[in-house]
Design brief:
The protein is about 45% helix and about 15% strand. It is an alpha/beta fold and about 250 residues long. The longest helix is centred in the last third of the chain and has 24 residues, at about 180-205.
C-alpha cells in the first residue's frame, strides 16, 4: 500500500499532465478519488480516458461522459478498433500547452484497464509492453510516443481490496478458473448488462429476458446453452464460468 502511494505521487510530481485510464464498462468503479485529489492538489491537468469503449453502447458512453466530464476532460478510446487515440493526442497537446520541450504524460489506473494499450494507440505502434494478464507492466517505463509526447507508463499500481473478487472477475484480473465464486461474478455481470443493455445479452445467448432476477436469467442461459447435469438440472457453476469467460473475452456488450 505504501509503495503504491509513493509511486503515484512520484509520477504525478514528474508529469506535466496525467491520464486516469478507466474501464468504460465500469467508469465509476475504476476511478480513484484519492488519486484524482492528489492530481488536483499538485495543480496538474488530467484527462479521464475511457478505454475499451467498443464494449459499451453509445448511449451508455455518452451518459458516463456527461457525468465524468464534470471532473475532467473525458476521451473515449478503443485500442481494438483504433478509435479515439488521435483525439486523445490532440487533447494532450492542447491541455499541456508546452512548446519548448517534450510533454511528460503520466498514465495511472487500476490493473487491466488498458493503460499500455492506450499508450500504444497514441504512439501508433507497439511501444509499451502490453498483456491481458494483470501486472504485466512490472516497473515504470518511459515511452516515446512521438510528436513531443513521452509517457510515464506505470504498473496497475492502484490496488483493489484483495477480497473484492467480484470486481477482479469483472475486470479480468482473475480468470474464471481462479475465482472462488464464478456464479456470483456471473450474476453481477448479468445484473449489469440487464440494466444497461439487456438486448445484447438476449441476442448473444438467444434468450428472452422479462422480469426474471439474475439467477433466473443464469438458469435460462444454462438451459439455452445446454450447460446441464446428468438429470437435466442446470449446472450453475459451468454456466457461470461460461458467462464470465464470454464477458472477459469481450463478447458481451454493456
Amino acid at each position: 500500500m505504501v509503495s503504491y502511494k509513493v509511486m503515484v505521487k512520484d509520477v504525478i510530481r514528474k508529469a506535466d499532465l496525467l491520464l486516469e485510464v478507466v474501464d468504460a464498462r465500469f467508469p465509476d468503479e475504476t476511478r480513484n478519488s484519492e488519486v484524482e485529489a492528489e492530481i488536483v492538489r499538485a495543480g496538474k491537468p488530467f484527462i479521464i480516458v475511457m478505454s475499451k469503449c467498443d464494449l459499451v453502447s453509445q448511449k451508455a458512453l455518452e451518459k458516463a461522459k456527461s457525468r465524468l466530464s464534470r471532473t475532467a476532460p473525458t476521451v473515449f478510446v478503443s485500442s481494438k478498433e483504433r478509435f479515439g487515440t488521435t483525439m486523445l493526442r490532440h487533447r494532450i497537446l492542447e491541455l499541456a500547452d508546452i512548446k519548448d520541450r517534450d510533454i511528460l504524460v503520466g498514465s495511472l489506473g487500476y490493473p487491466n484497464t488498458g493503460k499500455s494499450s492506450v499508450i500504444n494507440g497514441v504512439a501508433g505502434r507497439h511501444r509499451a509492453s502490453t498483456s491481458s494478464i494483470s501486472g504485466h507492466t512490472k516497473g515504470v517505463q518511459l515511452v516515446n510516443a512521438g510528436s513531443r509526447i513521452k509517457f510515464i507508463d506505470t504498473p496497475g499500481v492502484i490496488p483493489f481490496d484483495e477480497y473484492d473478487e467480484y470486481m477482479q472477475g469483472m475486470l479480468g484480473i482473475k480468470d474464471a478458473t481462479h475465482l472462488k465464486d464464478p456464479i456470483g461474478v456471473a450474476l453481477k455481470i448479468i445484473e449489469r448488462i440487464c440494466v444497461e443493455n439487456k438486448t445484447s445479452l438476449e441476442g448473444f445467448y438467444k434468450v428472452i429476458i422479462e422480469d426474471q432476477d439474475p439467477y433466473d436469467v443464469l438458469e435460462l442461459i444454462g438451459r439455452r446453452t445446454n450447460c446441464l447435469k446428468v438429470k437435466g438440472e442446470v449446472d450453475d457453476t459451468r454456466v457461470g464460468i461460461r458467462i464470465v469467460n464470454d464477458w472477459q473475452r469481450g463478447l458481451l456488450l454493456v
